[in-house]
Amino acid sequence: MSTGPLAIALVASEAVPFAKTGGLADVTGAMARELARAGHRVALVIPGHQRIDRRQHGLKPTGLALDVALGGDVRRVSVAATDALPGVRTLVIDHPMFGERPELYGDRDGDYPDNGMRYGLFSRAALHLLRQDGFSPDIIHCHDWQTGLVPVFLRQEGWFPGARSVFTIHNLAYQGIFGREILRTLGLPDSLYHMDGLEYYGQINYLKGGLFFSDRLTTVSPSYAEQIITPGYGCGLDGALRSVAGRLTGILNGVDDAEWGPARDPYLPRYDASRLHLKESAKRLLCKRTGLGYRTGRPVAGVISRLAMQKGWDILGAALPGLLEMDLDVVVLGAGDRPYHELLQQLPARYPGRIGLKLGFDNELAHFIYGGADLFLMPSQYEPCGLGQMIAMRYGTIPVVRATGGLADTVVDHRQSPLTSNGFSFPGYSADELSRTVSEALSVYRVIPEWQALMRRAMACDHTWASSISRYLDLYRDLLAGGPPDGPGPDVLPID
């Protein structure tokens, strides 16, 4: 097996530091940077969203314009580039469908109605761009439904015959489902319209393009890889996923150690496992910033999440009044569904000085919460990977999680394994189980030597990208050593 540098093209709808709506951007940006750091030639292809600050990130026009054929139409796109990610050639595809929209996927009225066209154009243009730019990839690694048609177009065009494709499912709940007419709009043949192609209950499912046409599939934790082939977690695609399970691997995401870590955090008193007393100084700062009434010995629980049912807000919302009746303060950072906003906005008046609340996102406050809280709550209904629990552990902030997906893979429950634990987890999805687990965590908190040993074990966990990238590189090399693809998915007829 070759051990030399690879040429790897990452294709994604968002990536830090350019544009972000969630963890997908964290992963794709960090993956590009770490692959380059490991000595590989890396191109990152993203759409030219309006939200990108071009001056800040040094985006400059390349002078390259591409005519992208879609059905009977031709769309002209232009290309900008930047080296804002060290060692990565970041290529940005510009078109009014991206640049004239204030958000990436939709607004308060819902998803943009032409998302099927927008990301169909992006998927086809990405391959045109790689070809015109002269980047000849060994691996084309696509991420989530927005790039699900890249492997389809790749097979259709017959370009990059030596390249292999990898498709990562970050969250199976989002699939890119559109009317059947999108096939003709994009110039794709009707031969794709069947259950082992893109057809999905009378519509077209972009994610299925990634499933059936990629040479290898990954998702973002081993447990999630096992869960999504079952009806309870398969979001209607469990049967399709079982049919390709031999090509599916679960690889945990990593934590960006340049951004997260108490020993060099620019916002906090810097501490490590040998200076845990300085964490109390971080708690004082957190309390001051969020209006909590600091008191020595009273723990603080932090929550940083989207306010949605997937993140467990139905049970967390029900449990919060009881948690605040304990000797526990709570600080919440996040935004999402209106009912949870309204619930949280009522609590500070009922519990003055006991709950800190910021509806929205604030990166600096996130650092204060990870560093200053004692507990970190993640009672997710399902969680493909989760980064919050891994970041919290780096700061000695003990996670309390529901044992699902990546949370089950990373958190060892103290009650089950007190000598090797790094947090607390519970299997059942209920407010009562969450409250009971928090109560038991607080009992351990009051035993200082036991709690500090737990903190040190959590801080010793290695969830950095170095380990994750090593697994991806093994997968890439194994795929390249395996000879020609075995032809997953139906044939795709070329466009006339």
What does the secondary structure layout of this molecule look like, with pairings?
Elements: E1 7-11, H1 23-37, E2 41-47, E3 60-70, E4 73-82, E5 88-94, H2 96-99, E6 106-107, E7 110-111, H3 115-133, E8 139-143, H4 150-157, E9 164-169, E10 177-178, H5 182-186, E11 199-200, E12 203-205, H6 206-213, E13 216-219, H7 222-227, H8 238-243, E14 248-250, H9 277-290, E15 300-304, H10 313-325, E16 329-334, H11 338-350, E17 355-359, H12 363-372, E18 375-378, H13 388-394, E19 398-402, H14 405-410, E20 424-426, H15 431-445, H16 448-460, H17 465-481
Description:
The structure is a single chain. The C terminus is likely disordered. 36% of the residues lie in helices and 20% in strands. The chain has two domains: 264 residues, Rossmann fold; 185 residues, Glycogen Phosphorylase B (Rossmann fold, 3-Layer(aba) Sandwich). β8, α4 and β9 form a beta-alpha-beta unit.
What tags apply to this protein structure?
496 residues; alpha/beta; Rossmann fold; nine-stranded mixed sheet; six-stranded parallel sheet; 20 strands; disordered C terminus
By CATH, the architecture of the largest domain is named 3-Layer(aba) Sandwich
CATH topology of the largest domain: Rossmann fold
Hey, roughly how much beta strand do the residues contain? Answer: 15-25%
State the fourth-level CATH superfamily of the largest domain.
Answer: Glycogen Phosphorylase B
Main sheet, how many strands, which sense, barrel?
9 strands, mixed
